[in-house]
């Protein structure tokens, strides 16, 4: 799947380039070649940024592992994962790491979620009988990770505040609703393909309280003022991040773990992980860069606008689609598109609100695929791409619908 997808990016870019060349734009080839080198450089820059983060969190995770925290989380969720991931043994370290990853994503702690997720994927790879083919457990984990249920989208608030929004948290509830739809569709799509029994009483015993807790949290936050909500979001995000680090260190100390030596030992893995990630990042980002510089993305956007106008629908949301269209491929490109939309149309314009909601509702699917599968050498993704894109599409459609509900 990834082989065909990667080749398809270059083929589509070539077709778009030929079309522009025939139309009198010979500079398109220079732009496409330049994008190859620019994306290769960006891949290295991304790795440099991730290098320190990976080293930090892999060191802290080694402390958590030796302190027994990961095993404890795995045992607590063993009944649920026994139904969702039957090939993973009860109490396996991967289960605790998956739980930590989901918690970090939910709190908007992207810097913490990525290294934890990579550690979880490597633990699942140890159980994979076909090292180059994604297992069912790895696919479910990746799709739920890509759908990225986010309870506190602090980064989106920051982007809006930087652009001068009067109420940076205005999109909080729309993002929460859209990301919930994305996660639900991701879970259902994988359950359908893998024939998981979500109606199992044990599964429902975990999912129903979670849904009620989420609903209660939404109701509580909906009653807060914009100022209080912004303060709470920032406080919870930073407090949770530091509290997690402190928990690892104190628990390790109580368990007589030599925390400094253990941290250094775990941090060494950051070098190996970074080295393994770079080729996959170069491959995916270069393909995306060529696709963008060829003009294929702009042609697609014009076609969507023409179709929407033909149906007689409101076309305001089309101006936000660049963020949605590049989000599956590149988080940095999506952020650039979001900021560009805010600057062009106004930070509180309808397109900017839709773009912000889209940005917070889903993850960068192909980036996650490249990073998570690349870290363990997975080459055959099976149904991971289709299910992840279904979740992403659900998040985008929900973001558009919710924004018309809230702001239309």
From TrEMBL:
Coiled coil: none annotated. It comes from the Bacteria. Residues 49-157, 275-378 form the Nucleoside transporter/FeoB GTPase Gate domain. The chain crosses the membrane at residues 36-60, 139-159, 171-192, 204-226, 232-252, 273-291, 350-373, 385-407. One of its GO terms (cellular component) is plasma membrane. Keywords: Membrane, Transmembrane, Transmembrane helix. InterPro entries: Gate_dom, SpmA_SpmB, SpmB. Pfam families: Gate. This is Spore maturation protein SpmA.
């Amino acid at each position: 799947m990834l082989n065909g997808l990667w080749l398809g990016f270059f083929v589509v870019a070539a077709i778009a380039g030929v079309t522009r060349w025939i139309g009198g734009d010979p500079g398109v080839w220079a732009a496409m070649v330049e994008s190859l080198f620019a994306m290769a450089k960006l891949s290295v820059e991304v790795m440099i940024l991730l290098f320190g983060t990976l080293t930090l969190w892999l060191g802290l995770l080694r402390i958590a592992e030796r302190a027994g925290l990961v095993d404890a989380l795995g045992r607590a969720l063993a009944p649920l994962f026994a139904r969702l991931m039957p090939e993973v043994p009860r109490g396996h370290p991967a289960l605790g790491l998956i739980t930590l990853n989901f918690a970090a994503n939910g709190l908007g702690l992207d810097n913490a979620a990525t290294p934890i997720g990579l550690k979880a994927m490597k633990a699942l790879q140890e159980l994979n009988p076909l090292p180059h083919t994604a297992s069912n457990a790895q696919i479910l984990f990746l799709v739920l990770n890509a759908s990225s249920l986010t309870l506190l989208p602090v980064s989106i608030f920051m982007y809006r505040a930087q652009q001068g929004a009067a109420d940076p948290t205005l999109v909080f509830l729309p993002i929460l609703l859209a990301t919930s739809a994305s996660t639900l569709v991701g879970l259902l799509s994988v359950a359908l393909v893998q024939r998981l029994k979500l109606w199992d009483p044990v599964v429902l015993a975990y999912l129903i309280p979670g849904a009620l807790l989420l609903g209660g949290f939404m109701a509580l936050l909906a009653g807060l003022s914009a100022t209080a909500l912004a303060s709470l979001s920032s406080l919870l995000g930073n407090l949770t991040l530091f509290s997690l680090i402190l928990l690892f260190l104190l628990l390790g100390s109580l368990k007589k773990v030599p925390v400094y030596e253990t941290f250094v030992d775990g941090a060494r893995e950051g070098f190996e992980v970074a080295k393994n990630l770079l080729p996959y990042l170069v491959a995916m980002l270069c393909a995306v860069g060529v696709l963008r510089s060829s003009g294929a993305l702009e042609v697609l956007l014009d076609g969507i606008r023409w179709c929407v106008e033909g149906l007689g629908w409101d076309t305001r949301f089309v101006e936000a689609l660049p963020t949605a269209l590049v989000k599956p491929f590149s988080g940095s490109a999506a952020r650039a598109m979001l900021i560009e939309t805010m600057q062009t149309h106004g930070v509180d314009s309808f397109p900017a609100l839709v773009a912000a909601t889209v940005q917070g509702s889903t993850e960068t699917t192909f980036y996650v695929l490249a990073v998570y599968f690349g870290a363990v050498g997975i080459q055959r993704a099976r149904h991971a791409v289709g299910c992840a894109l279904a979740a992403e599409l659900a998040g985008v459609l929900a973001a558009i619908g919710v924004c018309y509900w809230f702001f239309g």
